[in-house]
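In this supplementary section we document a worked example of the pipeline. Step one takes a protein sequence of length 585 as its only input; no multiple sequence alignment statistics are reported here. Step two produces a three-dimensional model, which step three serialises into structure tokens for compact storage. The input and output of this example are shown verbatim.
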Amino acid sequence: MTTVSNPVVVQGDRTLLLEVDHPHYAEARDALAQFAELEKSPEHIHTYRLTPLSLWNAAAAGLSAAAVIASLTRYSRYDLPPNVLADIRDYIGRYGRLKLLRDGADLVLRSDDAALIAEVARHKRTEAFVVERRDEYTLVIDPARRGHIKQALIAIGYPAEDLAGYTDGAALPIALRDITPSGEPFQMRQYQEDAVRAFYADGSPSGGSGVVVLPCGAGKTVVGLGAMAAIGRSTLILSPNTIAVRQWMSELVERTTLTPDQVGEYTGERKDIRPVTVTTYQMLTYRGSEDGVFPHFSLVTGHDWGLIIYDEVHLLPAPIFRITAEIQARRRLGLTATLVREDGREADVFGLIGPKRFDVPWRELERQGWIATAECHEIRVALPEDDRMVYAIAEEREKYRMAAENPTKVTVTRELLQRHADDQVLIIGQYLDQLKDLAQLLNAPLLTGRTNNTQREKLYDQFRQGKIKRLVVSKVANFAVDLPDANVAIQVSGTFGSRQEEAQRLGRLLRPKQDGRPAHFYSIVTRDTRDQEFSANRQLFLTEQGYRYTIDDAEEQGLLVERRAPTRLPAAGERASRGRGARRA
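The serialised model returned by step three reads:
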């Protein structure tokens, strides 16, 4: 049946075209986000794609093929192509056709499909993990290779549902406080409770592993605390950096009944192993030489943990995937604002940490008042005329650096700071030389990867207290930094087309403001260059979450008014002449 008034066109190659200006755009977008991936988001038509992984995540979250088809039918302008209907049924039907189970002391892989069991037993990707074929429906699997067989099964298109259960781990009674030591009332929000329930599943084998996706500022840490209280076992928490380690430790003591002597920091500065231990990915992946051993892996494998929490799970480095494949008997909770990985390893997160268990559209939490209202602006500037020829003949990588470091951006940044004189502003960038120049010209503190932890904490604290209102930061501030009063971010450059970084940078602004002010996220982009192309890709995830960038021309918006003669920034062409040695922060 053809319904011309609907906003979605479903095509035979499993792409979905969504009309942005349609009155039902928002509800259709939220529906598609449950089972499709956004690929492109130009002004008028957004392109989604149905992929095996997007449909497997939907299946793991409880969506049936019938529910996906019903949703598409509701919003589709034309009849659904028969091959797309078949693909949806096939891919969703594949999740759980194979089940990992415990049979006494054995780990077994079982299916009602004897032909599928025969295929797995003989497939070159999986046969090495099979100990024996017990019967036509059952394979005995090497229990030490539980994670490896799951990865291999995803690779051949049949993700297993892991119902083999978990090692209990050392008991550790934990409860959430009603009143914090500082005297503030504390209670989990409804969506946080729902996230814990979806992850834990009342302690059944179907729960206990998976990922919770919530925007920055929505309280992912609290979800972690709630999971710890539900499980009541010793816990290892992996986080992005030492600042995040200490924020976790503070929250643990503030919001749970754990005492300070039950919480340990395992970093380069301290190595205390306690019933709850917090460490960094960098610590675990440290080794003395490229082919040396990882001396701190024993922190994961050598202790009786009942739960491992992966904070910012989308950042997992490759060695952590490897060790996670070997600890599948431990409960695993991933926390993130976005499952997007720029290295394409989302399937490894699905297989080794677990499927997506809970997700809420960012704009829904904004409507409920749990995160700040955010307005996103892309401001386009021209490349200086003198640099256009240099840009035209530069190599591709140099083109992006030239466009990203366009000196015109400093004039726009200054004007935006004038317009936001009373706000708490983060100026965020990628290249160290650019950030140093901006910090000097704006008379603002600079925080990069080279800033030691003591100085970082001091600057963050001064910013929180309002003693400083401008802070120039590199990508070290992308993750797990609690700056509740930041309400403006000006992005002058980023990590090429990184969608996850765009989400994290907006996330710095999303904690609700006491006075209800909206947050403003500005991305200054050089027009008709690689900078603009990468910016379009960076914005994909936020577009999927319901954010729309207003696109403004700097000159038309009066943002190129020079209020005072600046100390001269090097032209983009001069920066290019510095060669490939230009540093990134």
